[in-house]
Amino acid sequence: MRSRQDDVGHAASVERALRLGLVGMGEATDEGAERRLERLAAAPVGAFVWTRHPDGRTFVGRIDGPWREDPGGAEVDLVHVREATWAEVDPALVPAAVEQTFARGGRNFQQIHPGDVEAATARVWQRLSA
Fold first, then answer.
1. Strands (E), the chain
2. Cα–Cα distance, 120 to 129 (Å, whole number)
3. How many Å apart are CA 126 and CA 120, to the nearest integer?
4. Using CB atoms within 10 A as the burial measure, which of 19, 49, 112, 125 is most buried?
């Protein structure tokens, strides 16, 4: 949930999303934005998502609702959103594929590879929900 706009504070976007129970992205500002928005809108309810706060804390979430626009998120460039339930994750529990994805520093709503990351994430979610 890091804005693609350099003048938008990353922490503010993540904090808004965590506080309001959202996952999302900003306005379409480049060529790939339409595809990213389509992926966000098409992700199934129950899909897992990960985010990291700039202070290093990592969170796993589950998408709970359909895509919608949130004009109130314009200030932090988080206007295309879905409801999500979030939980903070101990760094020792974060799957290696998630760490590798964060290390690349991307700002996209993207699928994390390899494919076993979904099973690993489900185990983390189950452990946090117990």
1. 22-25, 48-52, 58-63, 68-69, 80-89
2. 14
3. 10
4. 49
